[in-house]
Amino acid sequence: MTITITAFEHSPDGGRGLARDTRVRWALEEVGQPYEVRLVSFKAMKEPAHLAAHPFGQIPTYEDGDLVLFETGAIVFHIAQRYPGLLPDDANARARAITWMFAALSTIEPPVLEMANAKLLEGDRPWAAERMPLVQDRVRKPLGLLSNRLGGADWLDGEFSAGDLMMASVLLRIRASGILDEYANLAAYLARAEARPAYKRAFAAQLAVNKPGPP
Amino acid sequence: MTITITAFEHSPDGGRGLARDTRVRWALEEVGQPYEVRLVSFKAMKEPAHLAAHPFGQIPTYEDGDLVLFETGAIVFHIAQRYPGLLPDDANARARAITWMFAALSTIEPPVLEMANAKLLEGDRPWAAERMPLVQDRVRKPLGLLSNRLGGADWLDGEFSAGDLMMASVLLRIRASGILDEYANLAAYLARAEARPAYKRAFAAQLAVNKPGPP
Lengths: 215, 215
What we know:
- Two copies of one chain form a homodimer.
- Chain A is built from nine helices and four strands; from the N terminus they run βαβααββαααααα.
- By secondary structure, chain A is α+β, with helices and mostly antiparallel strands.
- Chain A has two domains: 3-85 and 198-210, Glutaredoxin; 91-196, Glutathione S-transferase Yfyf (Class Pi), Chain A, domain 2.
- Chain A has a four-stranded mixed β-sheet.
- The radius of gyration of chain A is 18 Å and the shape is globular.
């Protein structure tokens, strides 16, 4: 059975790898599973056929035979459970790796999304300049604690896991703000993640969809 | 081995059940596992002993023998994996139930947290009144789609699952705003969740810690 995922026909980030299909592509590359991609337009994302697969009208979705999943965290988790390579065998270590997946999505990403909203959705509002430092400090707070926990380790808990994949994917969204560089060990952690061959293949694959055409 | 969780010594919500230990208590009640609670002061939450268990200095944590977990989603998931009662046996149905856990935490909760921040952290700022409707509309957008998906069903995908537990827990945080009542089926869904005996026991247990003392 072929795994099929969906991705933006034209990603709003222009191929910088921030669209969430990149996380799923990365997971599939780490576990060595081939996949096909169905590109979806913004219009089609809000139509009944796509909403049947993804009730919130987003990408990515994941199809494998009868199974249809949405929600990036759930898809990456499913891949990590199903194929070896992204979760440790030891039960306790496995539970801790899964914990870091949830931490990336529930503790780090919400203030990151708030910061993105402040720029993209409220950048032209009269309060934008005065408010941004407040929002940035909400990102710094958990990042500082994450930096303390990581310390000098390569990955968050032993070997690279789905928890690191998700955390690095969230940290990628912070880099453009400059805030990540305030934490040298987190910047190095992200660089280590990006240097993984599986990440490079995933990044290249999404870029191939989104790169500017010939002049 | 006894399961021990941590909770606020004094919950900021005064026992309304919004602190995240309630989600873990609820999960443990659904699967019928006894547990002990260690209360933690705001001061102790930021000290090294607690940070060793929870790098972000929050509650709840979960201890069971050698295993120490943090992050509510991860803890509820661990309980749901380990004990029967919160996830279906069928592999595909199980993956879909897990998907709803991630959807609650990654799609619905971030705008809900942003709305809470707008009130609690920015309520006295000059932009508070003009900005709040924007933030509320960011909550309405996924709620409307969630309402469409739920339709007339009792639960999100078949039987009650850890996905419903997490979704109802997030919806609880919206109720005070009045926005949830704009979606009659979601308000009824939450009422169904709150009527579960396991939820009632969890709510009562956290209230017993937080209720005002005798006069």
